[in-house]
Write a structure and sequence with these properties.
Shape: globular
Structural class: alpha/beta
Oligomer: single chain
Radius of gyration: 31 Å
Distance between the termini: 145 Å
Largest sheet: 8 strands, mixed
Length: 581
């Protein structure tokens, strides 16, 4: 119509004005729509806008917050996680790792229940880079980077230029008090503390945290609370966590507690949990009824993450969304188990977990995953050439097992006391290719001695010598179920599938190992009962040994008391004959 007006020499001013007004209204509508989208990717240039959206959602009926991080490193060279480490040792090491490396991305997903079974999810992917400024002269932050971690993040499309140039600055609470007193007074501290404001808002909301492996939590404590962390004081560490959140749910620990799943790597675990949920939902058995779950992704979360592609894996915001949805599926499948396992954190390659509630009460860092009154744990030292079938033979005999490394296998007998002794003898006769059987505690002590004295092979050889030739295993001391051989992805606190593949074989009732990361957690859950029997058998054995020792001591004492004169006469006679000769 406009072109026709121009063609006929008319100036269609009213029509142009109407079109311009319509265009203006359309532009305003489009802008309003854009503003309605949650600005999920946080950088230094927009962090205030992202923070405002984040705070509003925390206040608007949030139920919990799922957390994930991407990191510059996740372990310390030369200090792999091993079964002989205690929970206290592992806590100290996790603290040192969190202090040594730093954050690249922090992912938060805020979950709110809209109606019954409908959950709103708003995710944030925040680039984080330590603040540097004149206030920190002489105290500039520094951190290490693992080459493998950087390569891993690069393979998963992390933009390092954006991280360094546009990462939201941050410092911890202690540094803020120490260096920014003047800045707080004149209101210029916000740009310097940056990401700390997100953390303060999160802690003030007093919402449960959901993580997939606790290393994320340690990094956040080191980044935003204090550095160094209270490594030597588990109670102080637990109190610090409680100051930030009333509850922590660790889906890696829940993997073992439920005992229904094989794969522990986040994406695979999510897929398995969703499949199990769908199976139960379709079930006609009322005993297996699960509540309906529907996810409503908000704003840019829907735009960016509505289609779950593996290419998005290991972006912190996406992984936090997966963690949130995984938790909701697990809670629907087994609500009681999930509730009972709040404040319990997973330890990789350990038979213990961290119970924050127990630490707060007693200060004891570790809690056994197994009921040690019901199971017995043994370590099989395998022959490198003939031990290939040991695992299948152990499974065929009814024992559960987990791989500790290439030549050691943790075997769990579901028995204690005398029954465990009989089962151990039967097992040793059936399982071939084993150089030696040892109780877990004995193996652990030998390993500790090797680290202390540098006689690792000697200590193990002596122990193996005592139990070789197919003899029945000695009474286990303190066996630990090897947790899944979870290897963290180099740049993420989440266990990777590949890393997991080299880990422990899950000790399931079928005796077959599963994929890497899942192995340990599955062991955690499925073997829970078995490992503990070992403890009771050890106790019984110790009682019997102590009683036998006491009887022997009493007999010797009686002989000495009543035969003293006779022994003296014999001795005198012997001396006279010797002198005469």
């Amino acid at each position: 119509p406009l072109l026709a007006d121009f063609t006929h020499g008319r100036w269609p001013i009213p029509r142009i004005q109407r079109c311009a007004c319509a265009a203006s209204r359309g532009a305003r509508g489009a802008w309003t729509g854009l503003r309605a989208l949650a600005p999920m990717e946080g950088r230094a240039s927009n962090f205030k806008k992202v923070l405002a959206d984040f705070e509003s959602r925390l206040r608007n009926g949030a139920e919990f917050v799922a957390i994930d991080t991407e990191l510059t490193g996740v372990d310390i060279s030369g200090e792999p996680d091993t079964f002989e480490e205690s929970a206290q040792m592992r806590l100290e090491k996790n603290c040192r790792i969190a202090e040594r490396y730093t954050l690249i991305q922090v992912g938060f997903t805020i979950v709110s229940q809209v109606t019954d079974g409908v959950f709103s999810c708003a995710s944030y992917n925040l680039f984080a880079f330590p603040y540097m400024g004149p206030e920190l002269l002489g105290y500039e932050p520094g951190f290490f980077c693992q080459a493998s971690a950087l390569q891993f993040n690069a393979q998963h499309h992390v933009d390092f230029n954006k991280w360094i140039k546009e990462g939201i600055p941050y410092m911890n609470r202690e540094d803020e008090r120490r260096h920014l007193k003047g800045a707080q007074e004149n209101g210029s501290a916000e740009k310097k503390t940056g990401l700390l404001l997100f953390w303060k808002a999160l802690c003030a909301a007093r919402l449960p945290f959901v993580v997939h492996c606790p290393l994320d939590l340690f990094f956040l404590l080191a980044a935003f609370e204090r550095r160094p962390l209270p490594r030597k004081d588990p109670r102080a560490l637990a109190q610090m966590i409680r100051h930030c959140t009333p509850k922590v749910f660790d889906t890696a620990h829940l993997h073992g507690a439920l005992g229904q799943f094989k794969r522990l790597a986040l994406l695979k675990f999510f897929e398995d949990a969703k499949a199990r949920y769908d199976e139960l939902k379709e079930s006609t058995n009322d005993l297996h009824h699960v509540p309906a779950i529907e996810f409503r992704l908000e704003g840019e979360t829907a735009t960016r993450y509505s289609k779950q592609h593996e290419e998005m894996a290991h972006e912190a915001g996406f992984d936090s969304l997966l963690t949130a949805q995984l938790f909701l599926y697990l809670r629907a499948i087994a609500p009681t188990v999930v509730k009972e396992n709040a404040n319990r954190l997973f330890l990789y390659r350990s038979v213990e977990f961290v119970d924050l509630d127990r630490i707060a009460q007693s200060g004891q860092a570790g809690t056994s995953m197994f009921d040690l009154t019901r199971v017995t744990l043994l370590v099989a030292v395998l022959d490198e050439r003939e031990g290939n079938n040991a695992a299948s033979l152990a499974a065929a005999s009814g024992a559960s097992y987990k791989w500790m490394d290439a030549t050691h296998m943790l075997v769990v007998l579901r028995a204690s006391g005398g029954a465990a002794v009989r089962k151990a003898a039967e097992l040793a006769a059936k399982v071939h290719g084993v150089q030696a059987w040892m109780g877990f505690d004995e193996w652990r002590c030998a390993q500790a001695a090797s680290l202390t004295n540098g006689h690792a092979s000697t200590a193990l050889a002596r122990s193996a010598e005592r139990h070789s030739n197919g003899s029945a295993p000695s009474p286990p001391t303190e066996a630990e179920p090897d947790e899944e051989d979870r290897q963290s992805s180099p740049g993420s606190a989440v266990p990777s599938e590949d890393a997991a593949s080299g880990g422990q074989v899950a000790a399931g009732t079928d005796g077959e190992g599963d994929d890497g990361a899942c192995r340990s957690s599955r062991s955690m859950s499925g073997l829970d009962d078995d490992d503990d029997d070992r403890g009771s058998w050890t106790l019984a054995h110790m009682v019997l040994a102590g009683a036998a020792s006491a009887v022997c001591t009493a007999l010797v004492a009686v002989i000495l008391m009543h035969g003293r004169s006779h022994f003296a006469a014999l001795g005198a006679r012997f001396l006279r004959r010797w002198r005469s000769r």
